[in-house]
Amino acid sequence: MAGIIKQWAYPLTGKNDLDPLFNRIGEARIVMLGEASHGTHEYYNWRSYISRRLIEEKGFNFIAVEGDWPDCYHLNRYIKNYTEEGKGAFKVLHSFNRWPTWMWANWEIVALADWLKQHNQALPLNRKIGFYGLDVYSLWESMENIMQYLEKTDLHALKIAEEAFKCFEPYRYDDGRSYAKATQFVPELCENEVVHLLKEIRAKLPSYNTDHENVFNAEQNALVMVDAERYYRAMIHGGTHSWNIRDDHMVQTLDRLLKLHGEKAKAIVWAHNTHVGDARATNMSQQGMYNIGELARLKYHDHNVVLVGFGSYKGAVIAGRSWGASMQKVEVPPALSGSWEHLLHTTGIHNRLLIMNDFHQDIFMENHIGHRAIGVVYHPQYEKYGNYVPSILPLRYDAFIYVDETTALHPLHILPDGHQTPETFPFGV
């Protein structure tokens, strides 16, 4: 295997070495850019560079990320130069204050946001590039956003929103765990309230006379509330159902954003490899799980969707020791022998780009090989027990970017070494 990879993989030493990837993307409408962790500098840098080229050269309309809708919408308004938004990406990104804050409140995203804002300045409003969150976790933030909106537009609907708020209020301070436990005794605890609110808002949408995107924002926040309530209710039972609710919500949000931006809209998605890489090429499918990569391929067809995975052999990452724990820099040990990352390392200590069309050979198609996945909670000493997803890599992705040694992300809440802003694009681009 190593010999075949060495023969067909492209060396990745500079920005021009990604040209084969852009040739592979071609006229695709959806490009999903993964990551093997939520705290690696190089993954963010390369995704930023790829996104910039997709916007400039191929006319992509927006970036949608594995992040909360309300916070990302705030950043979206900032980069589109709405006058009411805050000054400076650094200040705006400090509003991303729900753990894990570092995923989006980091210097790498500051640089991307500043570039997007500058790029958007000369564009008419209907062509400005957007930045949106796909995730489902922001139940209380979405509720507060809806109430603020309805105070100005619809006092009748505001009363319905207040009833929903009262229902959830006792459970709002622990990321949904107490609400999930309470649904064991009252299974439909607040479901009726959020569904009623969504129906009311959808019925009134034509009468809301604020700007078009703010109307969309109100409906989206109501959808987040409905799906977040379902997610927390499913969470208490364990298993795969809560995972599938979350990825269903993310792909439905992507669908809505594509429709918002027009018939020929193009989307860039940033999410973890476990969401991006087609679940059918992993053991996830055997457990009844699916993800946004798989769902997008099924809905939009393979020629319109390009899935790009990322991975590395060793390095460092920002993570926590437990959910809600302080962020810290954690060393990532050399990949386990027999894993995809170890196999790529044995081909030589070089970064590489793999285009999967070149690897349609039986030797790659018959073997599920471990592929490292690091979450926001990470214990490297226990890595072999749960951080490798058995995968057929050429079926899981359309392309794969391998970085032999990585460095940690630069959170805004931790001063960079020497108090200097870190280099935020590869090779000074």
List the helices and strands and how they pair.
Layout: H1 2-8, E1 10-11, H2 19-25, E2 30-33, H3 41-58, E3 62-65, H4 69-79, H5 89-93, H6 107-120, E4 130-133, H7 139-153, H8 155-168, H9 177-182, H10 191-204, H11 212-235, H12 241-260, E5 267-270, H13 273-276, H14 292-300, E6 305-319, E7 328-332, H15 340-345, E8 352-355, H16 362-365, E9 369-372, E10 388-391, H17 393-396, E11 399-405
Parallel strand pairs: 2-5, 2-6, 3-4, 3-5, 6-11
Antiparallel strand pairs: 1-8, 6-7, 8-11, 9-10
Helix pairs in contact: 3-6, 7-8, 7-11, 8-10, 10-11, 11-12
Pfam families: Erythro_esteras
Protein name: Erythromycin esterase family protein
InterPro entries: Emycin_Estase, Hydrolase/PRTase-associated, UCP036794_erythomycin
Describe the structure using short key phrases.
about 15% strand; UCP036794_erythomycin; Hydrolase/PRTase-associated; EreA/ChaN-like  fold; alpha/beta; 9-stranded mixed β-sheet; 11 strands
**Residue share in helix:** 40-55%
Name given to the CATH architecture of the largest domain:
3-Layer(aba) Sandwich
**Number of structurally distinct domains:** 2
Q: Identify the CATH class of the largest domain.
A: Alpha Beta
- First-to-last CA distance: 34 Å
Low-confidence segments, given as residue ranges, are: 416-420
**In percent, how much strand structure appears in the residues?**
5-15%
Round the Cα radius of gyration to an integer and report it.
21 Å
CATH superfamily of the largest domain: EreA-like (biosynthetic domain)
Q: Supply the helix-strand structural class.
A: alpha/beta
The count of helical stretches stands at 17
Q: Count of DSSP E strands?
A: 11
CATH topology of the largest domain: EreA/ChaN-like  fold
Shape: globular
Order of helices and strands: HEHEHEHHHEHHHHHHEHHEEHEHEEHE
Average the pLDDT over all residues and give the rounded result.
91
| Biggest sheet character | 9 strands, mixed
